[in-house]
Amino acid sequence: MSVKAFELVPAVERELLMGDKARINIECIECCGKHLYVGTNDCFIHHFLLEEHATTKGMLSYTVQKLLFKYLGLKKPVEALKAASALERIIVLCDATISVVDMITLEPVPSGGAKIKGVAAFCVNENPVNGDPFCVEIGVISARRRTVQIYMVYEDRVQLVKEVNTPEQPCAVSLDGYFLCLALSTQYIILNYSTGAAQDLFPYDSEERKPIVKRIGREEFLLAAPGGLGMFANAEGISQRAPVNWSESVMGAAVCFPYVVALDEGFVTVHSMLDQQLKQTLSFRDGHILQDFEGKVVLASTKAVYVLVPLPLERQIQDLLAGHRVEEALTLTEGARRNIPKDKFQILHKRILQQAGFIQFGQLQFLEAKEHFRTGQLDVRELISLYPLLLPASSSFTRCHPPLHEFADLNHLVQGDQEKDHLYVKYMNVRSTEGANGCREDVDTALLKLYAEQDHESLLDLLASPNACLLADSAPWLEKHHKYFALGLLYHYNGQDSAALQLWVRVVNGELQDSTRSDLYEYIVDFLSFCSNTDLVWKHADWALRRDQTIGVQIFTKRPVGQDQVKEQKDQVNPDDVITYLGKHSQALLLYLEHLVLGRRIQKEKLHTHLAVQYTDRVLSLLSQSPTADQQVSVARDKLQLLLRESSLYRVQLLLGKIQECDQLFLERATLHGKLEEHDKALHILVHQLKDFPAAEAYCVWGSASRDPAYQQRLFHLLLAVYLDRDLPSSTGTGELEMAAVDLLNRHGEVFDAVRVLDMLPVGWSLQLLRPFLGRALRGSMHACRTSQVALGLARSENLQLQHDRLKQRRSPVLVSEKKGCVLCHNTFSEPDCVCLPGGVPVHTHCAAQRVVRDSPTRRQLPV
Q1: Which of 32, 343, 391, 535 is the most buried (most CB within 10 A)?
Q2: For the purposes of burial, counting CB atoms within 10 Å of the CB of 438, is it exposed (0-12), middle (13-18) or buried (19 or more)?
């Protein structure tokens, strides 16, 4: 995939360099800042000044001024030039000899010691290990021996510091720190001249192709490998980058990050170091020198010098984006991080991500687009603005300039394709608002409009959560799309509960059509039950109750109650006011009273009596109907009976007076007599009028609940007496009552006093009938007797132990004084009488007595 990364710009034309001398060729070049040095085959060094300037089209060009040229007097080609700017010197290789000349005058250094002879090639260590800033370290290949020598070049002398032997004759060298990267006759190696450690890299044939050894960074080198590959290797001999695939005939290479530039016989190729792809090819004939100097790539033929001017990375990235080559653009952007200041890079990176996101958005690659939008911190309004009329009229948003995309709006994107339209809208529906900081009103209002138009379920989620939707913009839009429930939620969020309720009531009444919620009536009731505005509650309660009393009363039953439960507090209604208000809604009133009495357990006589009266009137009303609804009567009576049994706060005489004349409510009358402690009347009703013996027994159990055993025994004896009373007229047969008495004794024998029962029973009764009762009574009596004997024995044992302890304590004196305290009550002794505990500890006599009674094993064994 091609991209224009460089432009070839002429620097030194032939005429300026050699005039009309046709046989002069360029042998080497060196560039230091604006200064360009050219070495020729006629032993001259030419010094030029390069001035950069931009053309009217924004392109870079050079103005060249020839400052000086110098003949070295050796009649040999100048093979290599290296600038030492700190020394203001040029290191020259000519006729296998390294000499040093002045950078300005090109005059040789006067000292005779600044020469090295027998040199095949040399390089400058751009990562020197010597800390002297006025010294240049160079690596020199000896032309006569298989050695590499390390020299220190000073302003007026050179000094040999190290000589390293090599297994073969070196052809090319590059130096970084202590590491020498060498091209030998048959292979590349990396050699540490400090430790002598060597690392073989890979083989090659120096006779077939020219070796290339190029330092590209700290401890990293670029090498020309077999197969037309440009291989990268670090000081450990490891390749951390994939190779670039250039031609077999490469004669020179340079690096201008993130590109590798290679020169062959007819072309200049540009490969990316990031993805190793060929990015650009330039035609260039007769080229034979390619070098980079501080980021400037200089190219030379035999007659002229050119500069490969890199296009700005931002322009390259924009060209890639224009071709929708998103991944390449992002890769190049990441690679440019090291060459761009941090603040500028962050701005550039965000914009590139946003542009890439829009390209992928247009290609329906929504997941990738969303990730780029998130990482690039896109202003969500850029995306929303694609959809016509979504942004509120009050929004001050304007699209980014230059624009991030080429789309006018969503219609331009879909171009009539309904399927695409659906996909784009779906994407915008799920679009998060992470980039909405500072523009929440615009974003939320736009989302509301989109959700309403597309009938999306997220509309209610948006309105039910904290949002910044503009009411003035949103309300007409919701009305347009008949989203009245959602509009009510928006009114509520903006504190306009009255408007919300009026709107919802119209929907329930059928005046407005909105199918969002089929249970809107129930929702209104629930809303009113938690509404803090009690005026609104009273205003709409009648409408809710007239529609359905069972549901409408929940307005009051679901409302919270404070600690005192009935006292009116803020945002609450007084139960007494509710009861008065519900007077015209009997069913709702009954439900509300049940809620207060049975649900919240409010202990208030007025409420309990009111509920009991409501139950009673309901039962009497059902009983008076013809025909009687047995099922309804049964349910109503069960509720009344439960309240009569469980509550003790209602006015008994009032209820008794209401049902006194009703012959069908004997059980309720019996319960009321029981509340008045008139157990004989209650039992008489149950036995002689209802003839319900199980109910009579259940009455005794109920009446004696939470009472002492004596009270329970009295009730059961009273029931037995009713069964055995022959003086009372009864329609129940004597035999039936006697059998009920026998069953009572046999089932609840443990409650009765056996002696009293035997006195009450008729003389003629068979003992066989009372066998279960008598057996249980006998066992109980024997158990009590034996328990008493065990308790007596324990008491005697305890007394004997105490007497033994007393005799034991008498043998030793017990000291008691007014200053000494009792360990049980912690009071001092006021008299000499005391009791000694085991161990000789004195305590008050009354304290000891209390302890004995409390801790005595006899007391623990005796029944209470």
Answers
A1: 391
A2: exposed
Sign of CA dihedral 542, 545, 551, 553: positive
d(CA 830, CA 28): 125
pLDDT digits (tens, 9 = 90+) for 732-762: 567 788 888 888 888 888 888 888 888 888 8
Tell me how crowded residue 330 is: count the other CB atoms within 10 A of its CB: 18
Integer CA distances (angstroms), 439 to 374, 381, 434, 623, 783, in order: 16, 8, 11, 69, 88
262 contacts 247 by C-beta, under 8 angstroms:
yes
Q: What is the pLDDT of residues 542-558, one digit of tens each?
A: 999 999 999 999 999 99
**Residues near 829 by beta carbon (within 8 Å), at least 6 away in sequence:** 816, 817, 818, 820, 821, 822, 842, 844
Nearest to 186 by CA among 214, 221, 215, 211: 211
Residue with more model confidence, 332 or 104: 104
What pLDDT is stored for residue 861 in this prediction? 42
- The whole-number pLDDT of residue 860 equals 43
Q: Which amino acid is at 539?
A: K
CA-CA distance, 590 to 44, in Å (whole number)? 119
510: alpha, beta or left? (left if phi > 0; alpha if psi -120 to 50) = left
Burial of 332 (0-12, 13-18, 19+ CB in 10 A): buried
- If you average pLDDT over every residue of the chain, what do you get? 85
Q: How far is CA 750 from CA 186, 706, 741, 778, 779, in A?
A: 117, 17, 15, 10, 10
Angle at 458 between CA 457 and CA 463, to 5 degrees: 120
pLDDT at residue 794 is higher than 80: yes
Mean pLDDT of 631-645: 92
Contact 400, 383 (CB under 8 A): no
Q: Domains in the chain, start-ordered, CATH in brackets?
A: 6-311 (2.130.10.10), 692-811 (no CATH), 815-855 (no CATH)
Residue 236 contacts residue 224 (beta carbons within 8 Å): no
Q: What is the mean pLDDT of residues 610-639?
A: 90
CB of 642 closer than 8 Å to CB of 619: no
Structural contact between residues 843 and 834, judged by C-beta atoms closer than 8 angstroms: yes
Phi and psi based region of residue 62 (left: phi greater than 0; alpha: psi -120 to 50; beta: remaining) = beta
Give the Cβ contact number of residue 396 at 10 Å.
8
Is pLDDT above 90 for 781?
A: no
> What is the spatial distance between Cα 89 and Cα 72, in angstroms, rounded to a whole number?
15
Cα–Cα nearest to 224, from 208, 148, 277: 208
Q: 187 - beta bridge partners?
A: 203
pTM of whole model > 0.70? no
**Could you tell me if residue 520 is left (phi over 0), alpha (psi between -120 and 50 degrees) or otherwise beta?**
alpha
The three-class DSSP label of residue 734 is: helix
Identify the band that residue 563 occupies on the pLDDT scale cut at 50, 70 and 90: very low
Please give, one letter per residue, the 3-state secondary structure of 306-358: EEEEECCHHHHHHHHHHCCCHHHHHHHHHHHHHHCCHHHHHHHHHHHHHHHHH
- With the CA atoms of 615, 618, 622 and 624 taken in that order, what torsion angle do they form, in degrees rounded to the nearest 10? 110
Smallest CA-to-CA distance from 129 within 179, 86, 166, 90 is with 179
**pLDDT tier at 510 (50, 70, 90 boundaries)?**
very high
Most confident of 280-284, 724-728, 859-863: 280-284
Q: How far apart are CA 827 and CA 166, in angstroms?
A: 107
| Contact of 74 with 42, CB cutoff 8 Å | no
Q: Are 156 and 109 in contact (CB under 8 A)?
A: yes
Torsion sign (Cα): 410, 414, 419, 423: negative
pLDDT, greater one: 320 or 862 = 320
Distance CA 832, CA 100 (A): 125
Q: What is the pLDDT of residues 6-59, one digit of tens each?
A: 888 888 888 888 776 778 889 999 999 889 999 999 899 999 998 888 776 667
